[in-house]
């Protein structure tokens, strides 16, 4: 048990309250109670959804409730008629903000303490009220924080009692169910009810949703688990990311949609009749603080290569039990790359450069203006190759997580000077090629610089004459030196 507390310490680092070992508030105070609702659990009884801000400990109506810690009675009040009388006991008698414990659903006539009174740990506070629905007699128990000599009911909910209760006995590990038809997890576009079909490859920014629940010593009431984490094998195979940990401050009214998916496909429910919890794995920045900003996070599949991945989810309860489940999913992102090509040897013919994504073989040619476009390049790191006969072949690596642009200037590579027609030989055919280019608008030499046989930085009839003189009369070679192979 103690070892598990250390392992789960990442959750507790972010808890905003000091962890203090306490006994259970109802007899037997030295052993676990039966839990009907957990901290952070999805609930909706017909008006608005919220996260349950406390632990509901089940016991027969009339069961005595005792203070788990000494302190000052800061509130004795009801929030809604006879069923909702409660006592709050804080650490300070003054108006300064302090921590305290809330004991709710006491019988009004049984309450034994008054506001301002000092009570010792173990003091009888009152008895459980009779709950008229589903035999659900319970103590709503939670750590709170507020300020003032006397507290109103607008306190903060700052701690899961399971973080401080001793002797947690819970033999049952959390249970994953299929979240989307026969599929273990559901995948949708980020913050959208646009789901990927069963078996469909995913793309873009993806929400991953699981369906999971837990029991704590009572098999009629499904609860939310204490903690969930996930990892994606093939992406960061050794890294588990914290998805949710129900500890610390709980903004129960505003952040329910950050944690739970509730729509026609993944319909979270929490009431006396139904308990279905669809929780986001990916709405997290990795810590255990549940914040509105966490909703923006997702599995950014455009940042990785296309292919097959395995998604793992692991759920814990507070007693240390855990369950891991997984499924495979394919990633398929495709983007386009475009830009323009130019040459640093003044070649006027800008067409014919082949641009290819080496990983999946998508390619395209530059046109007469040097423009090119390659569609359907896979996501992730891609090696893009630019090649044209007689010019340097250029490879560049680009992260294809969006449509990209590369403008490039190509330089001549290994070529034979004077080999205007690019057949690896210097002969009369090259002179004819240059004449055709100069007088009949034929194609330019490739690379362009190869046709400058006389080295005057231009291509004209003089280069053809120079080549004829070299081939038939033993004149100087192109460039005044031996042809370069």
* Percent range for β-strand residues: 25-35%
Mean pLDDT figure: 93
The span between the termini is 76 Å
Radius of gyration: 37 Å
Please provide the count of β strands: 31
- Overall structural class, as computed from helix and strand content, comes to mainly beta
Count of helical stretches: 5
Task: Enumerate the spans where pLDDT stays under 50 for 5 or more consecutive residues.
Answer: 1-10, 12-18, 481-485
**Major sheet size, sense and barrel closure:** 8 strands, antiparallel
Domain count: the total is: 4
Shape label: rod-shaped
Q: Give the helix level as a range of percent.
A: under 10%
Could you explain the architecture of this structure?
α4 runs antiparallel to α5. The protein has 485 residues and is mostly beta strands. Helix content is 8%, strand content 33%. The protein has 4 domains: 148 residues, Glucose Permease (Domain IIA); 157 residues, no CATH class; 77 residues, Immunoglobulin-like; 53 residues, no CATH class. The N terminus and C terminus are likely disordered. The longest helix is centred in the C-terminal third of the chain and has 13 residues. The radius of gyration is 37 Å and the shape is rod-shaped.
List keywords for this structure.
disordered N terminus; single chain; disordered C terminus; 5 helices; mainly beta; 485 residues; Glucose Permease (Domain IIA); 4 domains; 31 strands; rod-shaped; five-stranded antiparallel beta sheet; Immunoglobulin-like; eight-stranded antiparallel beta sheet
């Amino acid at each position: 048990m103690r070892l598990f507390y250390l392992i789960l310490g990442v959750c507790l680092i972010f808890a905003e309250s000091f962890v203090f070992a306490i006994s259970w508030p109802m007899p037997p105070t030295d052993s676990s109670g039966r839990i009907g609702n957990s901290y952070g659990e999805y609930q909706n009884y017909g008006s608005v959804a919220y996260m349950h801000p406390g632990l509901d400990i089940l016991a027969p109506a009339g069961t005595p409730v005792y203070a788990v810690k000494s302190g000052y009675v800061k509130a004795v009040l009801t929030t809604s008629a006879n069923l909702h009388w409660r006592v709050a006991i804080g650490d300070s008698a003054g108006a300064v903000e302090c921590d305290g414990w809330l004991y709710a659903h006491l019988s009004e006539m049984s309450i034994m303490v008054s506001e301002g009174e000092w009570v010792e740990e173990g003091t009888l506070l009152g008895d459980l009220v009779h709950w008229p629905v589903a035999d659900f007699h319970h103590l709503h128990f939670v750590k709170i924080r507020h300020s003032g000599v006397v507290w109103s009911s607008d306190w903060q909910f700052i701690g899961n009692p399971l973080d401080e209760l001793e002797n947690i006995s819970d033999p049952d590990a959390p249970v994953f169910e299929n979240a989307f038809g026969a599929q273990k997890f559901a995948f949708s576009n980020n913050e959208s009810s646009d789901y990927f079909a069963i078996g469909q490859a995913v793309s873009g920014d993806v929400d991953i949703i699981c369906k999971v629940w837990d029991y704590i010593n009572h098999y009629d009431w499904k609860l939310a688990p204490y903690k969930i984490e996930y990892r994606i094998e093939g992406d960061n195979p050794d890294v588990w990311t914290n998805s949710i940990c129900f500890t610390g401050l709980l903004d129960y009214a505003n952040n329910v949609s950050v944690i739970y998916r509730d729509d026609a496909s993944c319909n979270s429910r929490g009431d006396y009749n139904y308990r279905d919890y669809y929780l986001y794995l990916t709405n997290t920045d990795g810590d255990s603080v549940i914040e509105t900003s966490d909703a923006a996070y997702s599995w950014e599949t455009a940042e990785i290569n296309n292919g097959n991945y395995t998604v793992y989810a692991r759920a814990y309860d507070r007693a240390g039990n855990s369950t891991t489940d997984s499924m495979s999913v394919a990633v398929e992102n495709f983007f386009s790359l475009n830009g323009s090509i130019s040459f640093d040897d003044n070649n006027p013919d800008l067409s014919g450069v082949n641009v290819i994504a080496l990983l999946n073989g998508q390619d395209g040619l530059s046109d007469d203006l040097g423009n090119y476009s390659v569609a359907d390049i896979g996501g992730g790191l891609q090696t893009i190759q630019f090649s044209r006969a007689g010019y340097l072949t250029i490879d560049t690596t680009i992260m294809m997580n969006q449509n990209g642009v590369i403008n490039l200037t190509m330089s001549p590579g290994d070529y034979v000077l004077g080999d205007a027609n690019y057949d690896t030989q210097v002969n009369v055919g090259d002179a004819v090629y240059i004449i055709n280019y100069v007088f009949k608008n034929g194609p330019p030499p490739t690379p362009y610089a190869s046709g400058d046989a006389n080295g005057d930085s231009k291509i004209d009839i003089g280069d053809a004459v120079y080549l004829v003189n070299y081939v038939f009369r033993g004149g100087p070679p192109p460039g005044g030196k031996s042809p370069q192979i």
